[in-house]
Structure formats: structure tokens, C-alpha cells
């Protein structure tokens, strides 16, 4: 089945009656409105499971924009749009605040070390103020830094950017975790593993399909070994079925995120899911 957000493709938005330019302008101003009113923008949370401990150890916060008449707009579109209208910092900080606030609300009900992961776009990371802004949000929301993980994606802009690396280094110094998202596709290079200050590597979901003898199998096995050597936590994204899961486990992967375990959920449903799964030892070997 298709996810709800997958049904609103960027093309569909732009192909609506009216010329493309007008549509783009209106989407941009709708996003401005949504940011100003803080309505229609919210987060869903997708649990992350460690099969070695049988526990759900964290959740990734995912941006949702429920457009008043277009329905859900896919997050990469929202991010690109925010980029275009120079609102990426505002959007990004709003997302961070929401995620930190939610994690704080869960303080007494979730395990002490349950981490909330938040996606950060390269542009945000390259802003000199980013470190200060994150510290301010953690202070404001009274959240221990070690409960926040920032997910960054490999990007051609990122590596030469001194500001981005400084921001990450300073954030890690105070205990914030850093994950490299979508590893194994796009601009992937081992260079990133060496140059970026990291805690976690997330294998892209295009690699979750590891049939025996496939190239994917070799790639995933190598990444699993390498992450072990480099002392990085490894998470595989996009696990959709048991077959994928057992093959990935055999290759040395222990932590997973994907529809097989759970789709992204509203905060309340996510909490219920985590509590029930941990109570029932649902994912214990
Ligand atoms: P991502 O960070 O790699 O997040 C994982 C995406 O894969 C999510 O899509 C999630 O719903 C989807 N997914 C999870 N498990 C499965 C599975 O088993 N099968 C399939 N087919 N998909 C699965 P979503 O929520 O549509 O987000 C797409 C991308 O948008 C994210 O990819 C991330 O790059 C970006 N994004 C989302 N929220 C934010 C945000 O707050 N800020 C920024 N800068 N980017 C965001
Ligand atoms: Mg991510
Ligand atoms: Mg990813
Ligand atoms: Mg992605």
C-alpha cells in the first residue's frame, strides 16, 4: 500500500489548473502562512528497533505539512520550497523545537536513553548561527543534548564547508549525536565517514533489498564491517518485510527502521506503540 504522503507528488501539485508559476507562488505563500500560524505543520515519529536488545531505542521525527486543500505535501518538496523562499532556517528550527518539546513531554514515560532523531538540511547546517540556535532550543525545552540526534545527508555542499563541520563538532562536544542519513547512495563517499564527526550511519533504504549474491549484499556487509571498525552505530532504513530483515541481520545489522516494524506515527500513537512493544517484549529474540 502507498503511504499517505506518497499520494501527493510534487508533479501533481504543479499540474493543477493554472500556470505553474502561479501555483508555485501560491504554494510558497501557503508555506509562509503555515510557518507564521504554526498550523498544519507537525511531526510524525517512526520507531527505531534494536533486535539485539529487543528494544525500541529511538524514533525519527518526520516533517508533515497538511496543506488545506492539496493534502500532504511530501517533505522533500516542503524543504526545497522553504529553501527557495529563504525560510529553511525558520522551518528547521520549528521542527527542532517541536521534536525536542515532544521528547521532553515523554520524559517520564519513555526510557531515559530514548533518542529523538531530527533531519537537518545542508543549508541549515551551513549557517553560522546553527550551533547557538540548537543550544537555545535545548535550553528552552530543558532537554539533555544526548537525547537529540541530528540526521544529516551527504551533500556536495557539505564537506568543504567549514561552518557546517564546526557546528557539528561543537554540537557533539555538548553531547548531541550526529547520524549520516541515506548512506550508500547519491554522493556517498567513504570520505564522509572520515571527515564528519559522526555517531551513527543510516543505510539508505535502496540497499535494504539484499538478495543472496547481489551487489547490495556485498555493499551492506562492507558498511556493517566498516561501521563496526569505526565504532559507529548502524541503522538500516526502509525494512519492509521479514525476508529483508533476516538477510540484513545475517550480514551483521542489528538496528532497523521501516514499515515492517512501524510506519511513521502521530506522537500519541508512537508512544503507545513503544510502550506496548517494550512491555510485550515484542522484538526480543
Ligand atoms: P529520510 O530522513 O531518509 O526519512 C525516511 C523516509 O523513509 C521517510 O519518508 C519515511 O516515511 C520513509 N520510510 C520509512 N520506512 C520506510 C519503508 O519501510 N519503506 C518505504 N518505502 N519508506 C519508508 P518521508 O517522511 O516522506 O521523508 C522523506 C525525506 O524528507 C526524509 O528522508 C528526509 O530526507 C526529508 N525530511 C523529512 N522530514 C524532514 C525535516 O524535518 N527536515 C528536513 N530537512 N528534511 C526532512
Ligand atoms: Mg532521516
Ligand atoms: Mg534516510
Ligand atoms: Mg532521504
UniProtKB/TrEMBL annotation:
Superkingdom of origin organism: Bacteria
Stretches assigned to the EAL domain: 24-278
UniProt keyword terms in alphabetical order: Cell membrane, Membrane, Sugar transport, Transmembrane, Transmembrane helix, Transport
Tagged with keyword Transport: yes
GO cellular component, one term: plasma membrane
Any Gene Ontology biological process: phosphoenolpyruvate-dependent sugar phosphotransferase system
Keyword Nucleotide-binding appears in the UniProt entry: no
MF (Gene Ontology): cyclic-guanylate-specific phosphodiesterase activity; protein-N(PI)-phosphohistidine-sugar phosphotransferase activity
Annotated compartments: Cell membrane
Name used for this protein in its record: PTS lactose transporter subunit IIC
Amino acid at each position: 500500500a502507498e503511504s499517505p504522503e506518497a499520494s501527493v507528488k510534487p508533479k501533481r501539485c504543479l499540474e493543477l489548473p493554472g500556470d505553474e508559476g502561479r501555483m508555485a507562488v501560491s504554494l510558497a505563500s501557503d508555506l509562509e502562512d503555515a510557518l507564521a500560524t504554526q498550523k498544519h505543520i507537525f511531526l510524525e515519529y517512526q520507531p527505531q528497533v534494536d533486535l539485539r536488545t529487543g528494544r525500541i531505542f529511538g524514533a525519527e521525527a518526520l516533517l508533515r505539512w497538511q496543506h488545506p486543500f492539496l493534502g500532504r505535501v511530501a517533505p522533500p518538496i516542503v524543504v526545497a520550497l522553504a529553501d527557495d523562499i529563504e525560510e529553511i532556517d525558520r522551518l528547521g528550527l520549528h521542527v527542532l523545537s517541536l521534536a525536542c518539546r515532544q521528547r521532553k513531554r515523554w520524559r517520564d514515560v519513555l526510557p531515559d536513553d530514548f533518542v529523538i532523531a531530527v533531519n537537518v538540511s545542508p543549508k541549515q547546517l551551513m549557517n553560522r548561527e546553527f550551533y547557538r540556535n540548537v543550544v537555545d532550543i535545548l535550553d528552552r525545552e530543558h532537554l539533555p543534548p544526548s537525547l537529540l540526534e541530528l540526521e544529516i545527508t551527504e551533500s556536495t555542499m557539505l564537506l568543504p564547508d567549514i561552518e557546517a563541520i564546526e557546528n557539528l563538532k561543537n554540537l557533539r562536544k555538548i553531547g548531541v549525536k550526529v547520524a549520516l542519513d541515506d548512506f550508500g547512495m547519491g554522493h556517498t563517499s567513504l570520505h564522509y565517514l572520515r571527515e564528519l564527526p559522526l555517531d551513527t550511519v543510516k543505510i539508505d533504504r535502496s540497499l535494504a533489498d539484499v538478495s543472496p549474491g547481489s551487489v547490495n549484499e556485498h555493499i551492506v556487509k562492507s558498511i556493517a564491517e566498516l561501521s563496526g571498525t569505526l565504532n559507529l552505530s548502524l541503522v538500516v532504513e526502509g525494512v519492509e518485510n521479514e525476508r529483508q530483515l533476516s538477510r540484513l541481520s545475517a550480514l551483521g545489522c542489528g538496528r532497523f527502521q521501516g514499515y515492517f516494524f512501524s510506519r511513521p506515527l502521530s506522537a500519541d500513537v508512537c508512544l503507545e506503540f513503544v510502550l506496548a512493544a517494550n512491555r510485550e517484549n515484542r522484538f526480543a529474540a
